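Observation: inputs received (chain + S-adenosylmethionine).
Thought: call the complex predictor directly.
Action: predict_structure
Action Input:
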Amino acid sequence: MEFHVITLFPEMLSALDAGLIGRAQKRGVITVRAHNLRDHGLGNYRQVDDAPYGGGSGMVMRPEPLATAMDEVMARHPGLLRILMTPQGELLDQPLARELGGHQPGLLLVAGRYEGFDERVRSMVDREISIGDYVLSGGELAAMVVIEAVARLVPGVLGNPESLAEESFGTGGVLEYPQYTRPEEFRGMRVPEVLLGGDHAKIRAWREIEARRRTERRRPGLIRSRGKPAT
Ligand code: SAM
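Observation:
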């Protein structure tokens, strides 16, 4: 799957060269490409922004550099889903990440800066996505969050795809159960006996109950109507 990002700060995307996503890139399972918006800037100063009509603070991103940058990427990589990163977009969650992961050949994410985009840019994209109800100073981190969330769902990126079903927001739609590793006792806190016993049916039942209990306490809204309360 391909991920393309139009940005004024392409160097920021190098954060994705590390860890799981970096390894997936090296293995060729996914590709991540940053495209410098400045290359499409206007005039000698490669201008990409201007003062807002009607007055007001800050600068607004002009539509022409974004249009030519997007046209160029789309001409070279046809079929990408064009996504505007904006706090005004639909909120990213796991179902949306799954949906985006099904889009072939991939995504073109447009990262804003300044006070955001000229309104006419919205007509040039397929979707608008926000990563949360807060305002960042730029869309690069937001685009990287989308790439992280979507890429790990791409077959072949995770070593053990079963972990996707069990982790938070997986097939059950609840938070993940508590996890423990060695040592058996740490600062007076012991690993629950059931996990040490090797009875897989009992471990599965314990994990199901704990996952549900934890979700009811922390995120009750996630419990699906078909679910039963923890006992
Ligand atoms: N003035 C804009 C508003 O009130 O909606 C905010 C502009 S913000 C300072 C600059 C850029 O950061 C946005 O164009 C967008 O690309 C990105 N951005 C900021 N917060 C975001 C969020 N929660 N989700 C996605 N992108 C965000």
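Thought: report the result.
Final Answer: The first strand starts at residue 2 and ends at 7. Residues 200-218 form the longest helix (19 residues).
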